[in-house]
Amino acid sequence: MSSLSKAKFKNIIESEQSDFKIIAEHFKLFKKNHTQRIIDHLLLLKDDHGGFPVDRLTHCLQTATLAYQDGRDPEYVVCALLHDIGDTLACYNHADLAATLLEPFISEKNYWMLKHHGIFQGYYFFHHIGLDRFQRNQFKDHPYFSYTEEFCRKYDSPAFDQNMETLPLEFFIPMLEQVLATPKKSLYKNI
After folding, report:
1. Helix axes 74-82 and 94-102, enclosed angle (nearest 10)
2. Whether 122 contacts 134, CB under 8 Å
3. What are the residue boundaries of the structural domains of the chain, listed by start?
4. Residue 3 above 80 pLDDT?
5. Whole-structure pTM value
């Protein structure tokens, strides 16, 4: 990218269309590495156990493995793979980070599932840490309640097994590339 021109303005207010033509060319190159940047961040979860029997990366891989083995589509499997990617940066709202990261590329249903999976997963352990395990019931009439409950019960909750056969990250990279190839909704999708 260093051989490309740079915009000349000092601030956005003084910018011109020609400046943003240059910036758009940079963006086209930058977005080509989006999947690799996500993979690099996901790898930050390796060796971070947080007290769990498996590290956070293995947990994500196991969640995706279970979803894949159950015949879920690539978008769902990618959601399963990245559902806890926010653990290192957003320890107080990791589900929001995962949902926001994938929002341009996934359905409303999968976005809602990702955004709320932390509360739904809490059903299995909140009572052990002094929280209300029934917090998810505030959403009992939501159309995606059962969908999110199923994600936690079938894929997220069982994915802490040291003895589980787990597909490697490399197996999921083509699905990541497929899902992240074209945003469905974004201000910048046509750039």
Report:
1. 150
2. no
3. 34-180
4. no
5. 0.91
